Amino acid sequence: MIKIVVDAMGGDNSPAVNVQGVAGALNKLKDIHIVLVGDEAQLNPLLERESYDSSRLTVVNATEVISCNEKPTEAIRAKKDSSMVKALDMLRTDNEARALVSIGSTGALLAGTVMRVGRIKGVKRPAFCPILPTVADGIVAICDSGANVDCDPQWLQQFAVMGSLYLTKAFGVQNPRVALLNVGVEEEKGDELRKATFPLLQNTPNINFVGNMESRDLLSGKFDLVVCDGFSGNVLLKSTEGACLELMRMLKHTLMSSFQSKIGALLIKKKLYEVKDKMDYNKYGGAVLLGAAKTVVKGHGSSNGEAVLHCIEQAYVMETNGLVEAIAQEIQR
């Protein structure tokens, strides 16, 4: 039985979506036990509406919530009875607790994980690694997407190692193609960080480094993992998500602009919804915090119940396949 802790109070639509996701996970995965941490007064009425195996659910009361507007480190230290802090403490102290899922404050989750759970021995810095769909019907991961604004080459080297293991263990991607985010594909391109990192990745055993990647090729399907500092990765992630959303809005506006285009839209309606569904982040779970001593998955703040379910599935698959142990072995080797 794999025990997974869920922070019930973080996120835009909490705790309702967390309860929905937890109930769905309990129904889908028969060998998990979930600890739901949050305000019992809010959680219990929501749980009564769901159908699930209650013998595999434990509710832990927490009276405080850490918001995204609070300073992460201060909030972790001050709000001892918050759902996130209690969830992190349980992950640290309970040997049976294997993973944590939260859709709350990204900064607080990062700070709390480092302060309370710790890193795998030898890992310089933990890094967020979200997943996006590609036009080739595959996926691409970005590591780091915001945990470390400033990095050195050795950190990026570890991001490549951890990200490659993550794709293999969690998604079955064999020999993932690793690229370095840069302003050009030529080896000599980029700033000092990129120039120093390129030969380091070339000479790193057990990763399939294929060279530099320009941001326009992120969704091309030519790469499985993109390695970058957290600042560049966060800009890459959000600009790509934003461009896709605006493109869909532009397409909808154009198709609804005339009678003829509305007829055309009706004919391709099914295909349009397939594209929209493919780009929906709720289908892909959350960003894993690679390098943490235990599995931590950060879902999107506006996640729905389906997204929370997929985050729990992510944590389950990683624990089933021993990702943390594999990273520890590779980093120490």
Question: Can you give keywords for this protein?
Answer:
alpha/beta, Isopropylmalate Dehydrogenase, 12 helices, 12 strands, globular
Helix and strand topology:
Elements: E1 2-7, H1 16-28, E2 32-38, H2 40-48, E3 57-61, H3 72-78, H4 83-93, E4 97-102, H5 106-117, E5 127-129, E6 131-133, E7 139-143, H6 153-171, E8 177-181, H7 192-202, E9 208-213, E10 225-227, H8 230-255, H9 259-267, H10 269-278, E11 287-290, E12 295-298, H11 305-320, H12 323-332
Parallel strand pairs: 1-2, 1-4, 2-3, 4-12, 7-10, 8-9, 8-10
Antiparallel strand pairs: 5-11, 6-7, 11-12
Describe this structure in words.
The protein has about 325 residues and is an alpha/beta fold. It has two domains: about 170 residues, Isopropylmalate Dehydrogenase (3-Layer(aba) Sandwich), CATH 3.40.718; about 160 residues, 3-Layer(aba) Sandwich (Isopropylmalate Dehydrogenase), CATH 3.40.718.10. Helices cover about 45% and strands about 15% of the residues. It has twelve helices and twelve strands. The strands form two sheets. It has a seven-stranded mixed sheet with strand order 3-2-1-4-12-11-5, with helices on both faces. Strands 6-7-10-8-9 form a five-stranded mixed sheet, with helices on both faces. Strand 2, helix 2 and strand 3 form a beta-alpha-beta unit. Helix 1 crosses helix 11, helix 4 runs parallel beside helix 5 and helix 6 packs antiparallel against helix 12. The two termini are about 30 Å apart.
